[in-house]
Amino acid sequence: MSAPLNPPIRDWRGLRVWLVGASSGIGAALAAELAGRGARIALSARRQDALAEVARRCTGADGVPLLLPLDVVDADGLRAAHGRILAEWDGIDLVVWLAGDYTPMRADAFDLTAARRIMDINLAVFNGLDVLLPTLRRQGRGALAIVSSVAGYRGLPRSLVYGPTKAALNNLADALYLDLHPLGVGVHLVCPGFVDTPLTAGNEFPMPGLIGAEEAARRIVGGLEQGRFEIRFPRGFTLVMRLLGMLPHRLYFALVRRFTGCDKVPAVPARDEPSSG
């Protein structure tokens, strides 16, 4: 059996974990799961009232969760939250970056304002790296888990902006692993399929392999405990997506069109030609 790519987490008791994007969905479920295992947790997201509700449900934690409301696009806010964590804990054992946004979008309804919002939020992990990397490198231990998506494996319908941002996170995790692993710092890439969360609630299409947020949280914890680099679930659906991503373009496009019906795109409306006189 090959050795794990990251140090396995053997015991969660007292482990210092910062969850960024913990007010709902997978983040909220993961907070409850880790608190129940004895981890010390810090919770960040924009909605302070939602964070307080998540903290209330985190029974069994080692102490009261730290509530650090912030907007991930605000680099100064992240820096302040990071500083408070170091003041309280004198270090960080694991950061799980869950913050993200999703709006279905296709080429016939491109919205630049929405696209920029999605990019700003989904790529705000770089704001996090600005404050986290010096700490992790100085410690020579700890880990960073980035929650991406199978939508980042290859282009998909309705994912004109979301998919490319997740592809960027997949690439980022690879690069971070190469840089940080020699220093003793772990890097994990979490690639869920469809999970029942507020972000997916608006999908108007069948979601194969849909699982609940609590199940997703357990899968993430299991992957961290095994020291896996890529933690993907559910296994069957994500394996199919992985295999599809390896196909030649011609075959990949044909299969995606067949199974998603994405050829049904409204015709481009004619534009009024400018007057020549």
UniProtKB/TrEMBL annotation:
Annotated GO MF terms: oxidoreductase activity
Pfam family, one: adh_short
Organism: Quisquiliibacterium transsilvanicum
GO cellular component: membrane
Alphabetic keyword roster: Oxidoreductase
The family this protein is said to belong to: Belongs to the short-chain dehydrogenases/reductases (SDR) family.
Name under which the protein is recorded: NAD(P)-dependent dehydrogenase (Short-subunit alcohol dehydrogenase family)
Top-level taxonomic group: Bacteria
PANTHER family per the UniProt record, alphabetical: DEHYDROGENASE/REDUCTASE SDR FAMILY MEMBER 7B, DEHYDROGENASE_REDUCTASE SDR FAMILY MEMBER 7B
